[in-house]
Write a structure and sequence with these properties.
The chain is α+β, with helices and mostly antiparallel strands. It contains 4 helices and 4 strands.
């Protein structure tokens, strides 16, 4: 799935907006760590709330949704998050629960082709 428009002007505007959203200051250190990890791997992680991140590659292709949770009992998904995860699974939409001891999901790094 591609979110970047086809025309050169639209592409430039969308990429600028994606870059701006991907650089927004975060108050949660766990979320900030994940976003920086994505940047190191050439991905853009946009933080807009629920789920925590929408992840795109540098070309604007959708990679998946990520929910950030601490490890252990505190990292339990709320009901609405569990429901969203089930919907994603039903429609085969990539969705991951991430914590600090994990790396970027390998599916996000694969190139289509």
């Amino acid at each position: 799935m591609r979110f970047v428009k086809k025309t050169t002007k639209d592409r430039s505007l969308y990429r600028a907006q994606i870059t701006k959203l991907a650089k927004r200051k975060l108050s949660n250190p766990r979320e900030d760590y994940f976003r920086n990890l994505c940047l190191l791997k050439g991905l853009r992680a946009i933080h807009q709330g629920w789920p925590d991140f929408l992840v795109l590659d540098s070309a604007g292709n959708f990679k998946g949704f990520v929910e950030i949770k601490p490890q252990g009992k505190k990292g339990k998904l709320r009901f609405s998050q569990t429901l969203f995860r089930r919907i994603c699974k039903l429609y085969r939409i990539p969705y991951f629960v991430w914590s600090e001891e994990k790396d970027i999901p390998p599916e996000f790094l694969r190139q289509k082709g």
